[in-house]
Design brief:
- This protein is an alpha/beta fold.
- It is built from 8 helices and 6 strands.
- It has one domain: 3-Layer(aba) Sandwich (Pyruvate-ferredoxin Oxidoreductase, domain 3).
- The radius of gyration is 16 Å and the shape is globular.
């Protein structure tokens, strides 16, 4: 059976490192994995979406609407935008952080209200204050690994396997912070 995970966020939040950790972990578990990165205006804080599919045999990384088993959202509005991709009975793991997109910054649009309330009506939502946990780990940029930790707990892959992958994927100078961030997410 194939699993489909969407990772959504804003440029600069570390979605690509998160997808590498996820992809490497499932490869190490013996799964066939396909990853596709869809960049918006990532350098300017635009949307970034990564599809990760894994299973016995995967032919395409693309996740269509209603197909994602899990959506890992690094920001509230991105979580809301990705909601149509979540399958019935799927799980949304979302950071409660708000990052204003350009139309909100320029005053052309307003940031939507009650996003998590709306998502909760349609899906199982795990809301995470990942920014606070990342800061507790020692670096606000570790939001991505906090969220990977939260997601890892809901998989069949043992804790130790995730830690092994983080050790081989994250640059050594950031390893301690990221291991702590993963633990904080995993134990939330």
């Amino acid at each position: 059976m194939t699993k489909s995970i969407m990772i959504v966020g804003v440029g600069g939040q570390g979605t690509l490192l998160a997808s590498r950790i996820l992809g490497n972990t499932v490869i190490n578990e013996g799964y066939d994995v396909k990853v596709s990165e869809v960049h918006g205006m990532s350098q300017r804080g635009g949307s970034v979406v990564t599809y990760v599919k894994f299973g016995e045999k995967v032919y395409s990384p693309i996740i269509d609407m209603g197909e994602a088993d899990i959506i890992l959202a690094f920001e509230q509005l991105e979580a809301y935008r990705a909601l149509p991709y979540l399958k019935k009975g799927g799980k949304m793991i979302a950071n409660n952080q708000k990052i204003n997109p350009m139309p909100v910054i320029t005053g052309v649009a307003e940031y939507p209200e009650n996003i998590f309330e709306k998502i909760s009506k349609e899906a199982e939502l795990i809301e995470v204050d990942a920014l606070s946990l990342a800061e507790e780990a020692g670096n606000f940029k570790a939001v991505n690994v906090v969220l990977i930790g939260v997601m890892a707990k809901s998989t069949d892959i043992p804790y130790e396997k995730w830690v092994e992958t983080i050790k081989t994927t994250v640059p050594p100078k950031f390893l301690d912070v990221n291991l702590k961030a993963f633990d904080l997410g995993y134990n939330t």
